[in-house]
Specification:
The protein has about 70 residues and is mostly helical. It has helices at about 5-15, 35, 50, 60-65. The protein starts with a helix and ends with a helix.
Amino acid sequence: MSCKANLLLLLLLLFRRPHDLLAAILRVPFVDFLTSMTQTELPLTVHEYGEWGDPADPAVLQQVSNKQK
């Protein structure tokens, strides 16, 4: 089974029966939020700056990229 198929099964379990799992560790992020946050033409990106910060600021970029690891 491919990694994507396993991820779909895990997400289905997480959403439909969350009480059956204590935690799920995903090796690959479901969404690459750092790349999304640097694309200002995407809808809602600029609106998220209040929560995540503006990745054009080097300090914010460093902090957000450390969270992705």
